[in-house]
Automatic annotation (TrEMBL):
Keywords: Membrane, Transmembrane, Transmembrane helix. GO terms for cellular component: membrane. The chain crosses the membrane at residues 12-35, 41-61, 77-95, 129-147, 153-175, 187-206, 218-244, 251-272, 278-297. It is a multi-pass membrane protein. Belongs to the TPT transporter family. SLC35E subfamily. The keyword Nucleotide-binding does not apply. Putative transporter. This is Solute carrier family 35 member E3. Its main location: membrane.
Length: 313
């Protein structure tokens, strides 16, 4: 009976974490869109602000004794910090050199790449039925993006690099928490300033730094307040991402990412009257079916493995 209660609590915590991530992720998508449209704040510079505010937020949390920092060797976090910067840079380059449809289609490939990395590099096994859930999810993304898919060589190179680096980043977020025996706050506390420093070096190659349109340019008070609010929400998004990956898996987080994509599309249709074609509606249904199937199979497999452990003498 006690184990059942513990299991229910565990599932409840994960559900609450996913719901929190969903809410703050949707908030930041629409807030960032507002910042880009109404203030024209540069994309990578905004990501830099997000990570600086994330580190400051964690520093305050540490001072309030919400968590205790753990001394970690920088060499152990170097690849994680680099992969984050690569993920930001290549994702932006993919978006710049591809249509939205091609960009979204490439992002959908992250899930199978994560499964491949975990299978071949970490000897993690996935059942056939879990792998089959990728079919309706990928089909759903293709239906959503079909009329906007256009291929060009440079765009495909950036998209492929973006998928590979993003997949590695998400796998390493989970692997480093287990390897270094740290929680999400402890890991992010050390990774955030390293990634901020690396992004600070990368930003001048892609965006202006000073003057009109630069991160240190003459911005209005309202623009700066919106950017700061975006940074605070990003702190919550980053923390919840690390917590979800650490308590579930990179694949589960990625599946949840597809769900957020569907909710954002549907939210745009309901709130902003964005056009939603029959193809997109079918794509959303296909993706949601794949996610529900994945969730059902994953939970039943977890229950089966726990029952086997309980039956051992």
């Amino acid at each position: 009976m006690a184990s059942l209660v513990d299991r229910m609590r565990g599932h409840g915590r994960i559900a609450a974490g996913l719901l929190f991530n969903l809410l703050v992720s949707i908030c930041i998508v629409f807030l960032n869109k507002w910042i880009y449209v109404h203030h024209g704040f540069p994309n990578m510079s905004l990501t830099l602000v997000h990570f600086v505010v994330t580190w400051l937020g964690l520093y305050i949390c540490q001072k309030l004794d919400i968590f205790a920092p753990k001394s970690l060797p920088p060499s152990k976090l170097l690849l994680l910090a680099l992969s984050f910067c690569g993920f930001v840079v290549f994702t932006n380059l993919s978006l710049q050199n591809n249509t939205i449809g091609t960009y979204q289609l490439a992002k959908a490939m992250t899930t199978p790449v994560i499964i491949a990395i975990q299978t071949f590099c970490y000897q993690k096994t996935f059942s056939t039925r879990i792998q089959l859930t990728l079919i309706p999810i990928t089909l759903g993304v293709i239906l959503n993006s079909y009329y906007d898919v256009k291929f060009n060589f440079l765009g495909m190179v950036f998209a492929a690099l973006g998928v590979l680096v993003t997949s590695l980043y998400q796998v390493w977020v989970g692997a480093k928490q287990h390897e270094l025996q740290v929680n999400s706050m402890q890991l992010l506390y050390y990774q955030a300033p390293m990634s901020s420093a690396m992004l600070l070096v990368a930003v001048p190659f892609f965006e202006p730094v000073f003057g009109e349109g630069g991160i240190f340019g003459p911005w209005s008070v309202s623009a700066l307040l919106m950017v700061l609010l975006s940074g605070v929400i990003a702190f919550m998004v980053n923390l919840s991402i690390y917590w979800i990956i650490g308590n579930t898996s990179p694949v589960t987080y990625n599946m949840f990412g597809h769900f957020k994509f569907c909710i954002t599309l549907f939210g745009g249709y309901v709130l902003f009257k964005d056009p939603l074609s029959i193809n997109q509606a079918l794509g959303i249904l296909c993706t949601l079916f794949g996610i529900l199937a994945y969730t059902h199979f994953k939970l039943s497999e977890q229950e089966g493995s726990k029952n086997k452990l309980a039956q051992r003498p």
